């Protein structure tokens, strides 16, 4: 029977001690020594067991901080109990008691993880001192584990990026956020060169310099760079603002003695918003003056077009021209015509972008609208060898917005996709509801967009086409913004482009018609 002594109520426990000895007298004496050791209300909680089996059962049920174990037990050797006991109480320590100690026995005991070996007959103070030391170790181990747990909670669960780099720029630590943005598991990141693997070439040198400066000096450095998986095919890089500082104590394994900690904040969204605000401001600053100018240009442009038409006819009528010269002249006139046409388009699109206009807001069957636009472009698509597939949710998703404007959005996106697929391909349009949004997803099998320019395609005047205006996607974004929606492009070179537009959904029941709860 295990003997349990009643613990004085509300006493502060100095620690839980498990005495394992088949000699009841000795166990009792040890217990009394320990119970007399506390000062004031603080005391050890002492349990006793008479054999190995009983000791393991008690350890399993109640745990212990220090186990005092006789080497010679009826059913086991105390040395063999060390490992299973410690497995049951991970931070607990085992003190062995033996009648005689050879050097070999002592070494074996310590190898198996005993905290100490006490040889009978010992003085009570010796036992108390040893137990106190063991308890101190247990407490420190616990405190360390707790600190580590808190540190992990802070580092892992936070929404900022935390990285640690060694003196040569190799990754020592990525927290969960950094790893997920980098597209690797935290353990996989370890040892890889940070700058060359996850920072774009343009920012690499600046970051390397900042790291070196942080390592050399005591001052923390701030630097903003791109961050993301450079090897990934899809997904744009993020913008991250890093706060770099050297860890002074260092870690033994980091050669050169230095570690740099980087705390990073993802500024991608903020930078994008700032840029959009700046774009909008720039457009409105161009404002009326530019619009007036655009209108003024339209008249002479129309006149030039008319004159060109007449000139073409005149060339046809000039009897003295040789066929070669005539065709050469037509060719040149044709080029002038193309350029006038391009200027005309530029004006139309520019006016569209710059003109402030109220939207009408009605329920728009987005699927029908998409089909109408695709019907317009079907001939173009066939001529290019592009197959079109349409998939519309059977519930007829309805967005709230301006049908004419949305038509323009879809037209711009479809024209871009068709223009991208010069050698044929397929265009898939899907319209579906998702939560309180209506989504249009257009996937093409064209050449896709290089990640290095993906962030720029919505900029006014950004184009990679010879006769492009670079205003199509700017208009798309402006209209979608006005609708309170969102548009993004997911693409990589050689993998086609996928444009995803989401718009606020119209309520399914007509206005005022009580939609049931
Ligand atoms: P534009 O069509 O006049 O060039 P946009 O603003 O519509 O102007 O498009 C900007 C650029 O975005 C294009 O020049 C092209 O490089 C790229 N782009 C747009 N859509 C696609 C697509 N579906 N596939 C590949 N590139 C595209």
Structure report:
It is built from 15 helices and 17 strands. With 517 residues, the chain is α/β, with parallel strands linked by helices. It has four domains: 13-153, 3-Layer(aba) Sandwich (Rossmann fold), CATH 3.40.50; 158-266, PAS domain (Beta-Lactamase, 2-Layer Sandwich), CATH 3.30.450.20; 272-354; 362-504, Heat Shock Protein 90 (2-Layer Sandwich), CATH 3.30.565. It has a five-stranded parallel beta sheet with strand order 2-1-3-4-5, sandwiched between helices. A five-stranded antiparallel beta sheet has the order 7-6-10-9-8, sandwiched between helices. The longest helix is centred in the middle third of the chain and has 50 residues, at 268-317. It is elongated, with a radius of gyration of 39 Å. Residues 510-517 have low confidence and may be disordered.
Task: Give me a quick take on this structure.
With 517 residues, the protein is an alpha/beta fold. The chain folds into four domains: 141 residues, Rossmann fold (3-Layer(aba) Sandwich); 109 residues, PAS domain (Beta-Lactamase, 2-Layer Sandwich); 83 residues; 143 residues, Histidine kinase-like ATPase, C-terminal domain (Heat Shock Protein 90, 2-Layer Sandwich), CATH 3.30.565.
Strand and helix layout:
Blueprint: E1 13-20, H1 24-35, E2 43-49, H2 52-62, E3 66-70, H3 78-88, E4 93-98, H4 103-111, E5 116-119, H5 124-157, E6 161-166, E7 171-174, H6 176-182, H7 186-189, H8 194-198, H9 201-216, E8 221-227, E9 238-247, E10 259-266, H10 268-317, H11 323-354, E11 362-365, H12 366-384, E12 386-392, E13 398-401, H13 403-420, E14 425-434, E15 437-444, H14 451-454, H15 472-482, E16 486-491, E17 497-504
Parallel strand pairs: 1-2, 1-3, 3-4, 4-5, 12-14
Antiparallel strand pairs: 6-7, 6-10, 8-9, 9-10, 11-13, 14-15, 15-17, 16-17
């Amino acid at each position: 029977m295990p003997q349990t002594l009643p613990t004085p109520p509300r006493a502060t426990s100095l620690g839980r001690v498990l005495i394992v000895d088949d000699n009841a007298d000795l166990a009792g004496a040890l217990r009394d020594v320990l119970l007399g050791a506390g000062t004031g209300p603080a005391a050890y909680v002492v349990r006793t067991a008479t054999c190995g089996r009983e000791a393991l059962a008690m350890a399993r049920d109640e745990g212990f901080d220090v186990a005092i174990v006789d080497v010679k037990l009826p059913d086991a050797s105390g040395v063999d109990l060390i490992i299973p006991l410690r497995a049951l109480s991970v931070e607990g320590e085992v003190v062995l008691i033996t009648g005689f100690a050879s050097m070999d026995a002592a070494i074996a005991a310590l190898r198996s993880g005993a905290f100490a070996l006490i040889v009978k007959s010992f003085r009570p103070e010796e036992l108390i001192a040893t137990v106190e030391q063991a308890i101190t170790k247990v407490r420190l181990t616990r405190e360390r584990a707790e600190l580590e747990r808190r540190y992990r909670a802070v580092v892992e669960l936070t929404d900022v990026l935390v990285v640690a780099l060694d003196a040569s720029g190799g990754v020592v630590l990525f927290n969960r956020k950094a790893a997920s943005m980098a597209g690797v598991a935290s353990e996989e990141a370890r040892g890889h060169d940070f700058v060359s693997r996850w920072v774009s070439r343009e920012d690499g040198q600046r970051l390397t310099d900042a790291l070196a400066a942080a390592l050399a000096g005591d001052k923390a450095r701030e630097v903003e760079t791109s961050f993301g998986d450079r090897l990934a095919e899809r997904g744009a890089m993020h913008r991250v603002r890093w706060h770099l500082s050297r860890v002074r104590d260092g870690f033994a394994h980091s050669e050169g003695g230095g570690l740099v900690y980087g705390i990073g904040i993802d500024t991608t969204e903020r930078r994008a918003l700032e840029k959009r605000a700046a774009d909008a401001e720039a457009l409105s600053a161009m404002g009326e003056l530019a619009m007036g100018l655009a209108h003024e240009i339209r008249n002479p442009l129309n006149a030039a077009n008319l004159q060109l038409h007449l000139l073409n006819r005149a060339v046809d009528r000039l009897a003295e021209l040789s066929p070669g010269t005539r065709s050469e002249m037509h060719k040149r006139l044709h080029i002038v015509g193309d350029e006038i046409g391009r200027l005309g388009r530029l004006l139309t699109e520019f006016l569209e972008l710059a003109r402030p206009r109220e939207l009408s807001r009605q329920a728009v069957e987005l699927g029908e609208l998409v089909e109408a636009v695709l019907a317009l472009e079907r001939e173009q698509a066939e001529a290019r060898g592009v197959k079109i597939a349409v998939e519309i949710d059977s519930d007829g998703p309805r967005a709230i917005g301006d049908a004419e404007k949305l038509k323009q959005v879809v037209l711009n996106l479809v024209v871009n996709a068709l223009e991208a697929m010069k050698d044929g391909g397929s265009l898939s349009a899907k319209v579906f509801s998702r939560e309180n949004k209506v989504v249009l997803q257009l996937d093409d099998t064209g050449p896709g967009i290089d990640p290095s320019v993906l962030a720029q395609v919505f900029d006014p005047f950004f184009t990679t086409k010879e006769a492009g205006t670079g205003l199509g996607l700017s208009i798309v974004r402006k209209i979608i913004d006005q609708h309170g929606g969102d548009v993004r492009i997911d693409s990589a070179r050689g993998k086609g482009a996928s444009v995803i537009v989401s718009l606020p959904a119209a309520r399914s029941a007509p206005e005022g018609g009580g939609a049931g709860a």
